[in-house]
User: What shape does this take?
Amino acid sequence: MSKIGLFFGSDEGNTESIAQRIAKRLGEDVVDIHDIGDVTQLEFLDYDKLILGIPTWDFGQIQSDWEDFWDDVEAINFAGKTVAFVGLGDQFGYGDFFLDAMGMLHDVVIKTTDNIIGYWPTEGYDYDASKAEITLGAEVAGKKLFMGLALDEDQQPELSSGRLNLWCAQIHAEFGLDTPLIELDD
Assistant: This one.
């Protein structure tokens, strides 16, 4: 069984907590969690399946550890890898920049792979603009989606558990995992 590498950056702990909650759902024996502040490009080579977790700060800024690693992530060849994204943001305080960092990270990764999974519907969110929003083609009838799971731990924390359960079930299937999936109410 190939493991999933989950790489995250977190200043206040929200994205780290989400990474741990994802690992519990997919199986802690299936997911290796890495703080982006403690890795090199070489760790990415160990995985064919990746989950990248990134929060957006202030007015569309990249979280500090991801920012420090940005030149390195741009040098990684993601060819042959399946990649899913998780973005955290504040849709009410920064509704013009909701999940922009996830969109910027997606734009880097998509340069070397087109095997992106985990797209997520934009319904149920109240924001003005997002670099993480994408309109896919005929397979979803031109529906607007986020490039990955969208979470707002500041304004909608009560929705995160349900969203995590649904998204983890989705990527469990899209990754083709044959391990048990655990739904949690955390």
User: Anything to note?
Assistant: The longest strand covers residues 49-57. The two ends are 27 Å apart (CA to CA). The first helix runs from residue 14 to 26. Residues 96 and 129 are 5 Å apart (CA to CA).
